[in-house]
Q: What sequence folds into this?
């Protein structure tokens, strides 16, 4: 059942407009950021390089694009 209208939010981190469920920024635990930035922050916290982060995110997008 789908009765929720998507809310458009602007990510303060990358500036993109998104309608997905927001992620909570780890930097202050109150800023809502887009899911991509949420993944970035989570991977960064694990010590994963920016290059690897981009790879992981592109893989995630490839899998959800269908
Ligand atoms: Zn973002």
A:
């Amino acid at each position: 059942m789908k009765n929720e209208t998507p809310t458009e939010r602007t990510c303060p981190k990358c500036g993109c407009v998104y309608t997905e469920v927001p992620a909570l920024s780890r930097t202050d635990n109150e800023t809502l950021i887009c899911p991509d930035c949420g993944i970035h922050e989570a991977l960064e916290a694990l010590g994963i390089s920016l290059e690897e982060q981009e790879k992981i995110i592109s893989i995630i997008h490839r899998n959800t694009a269908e």
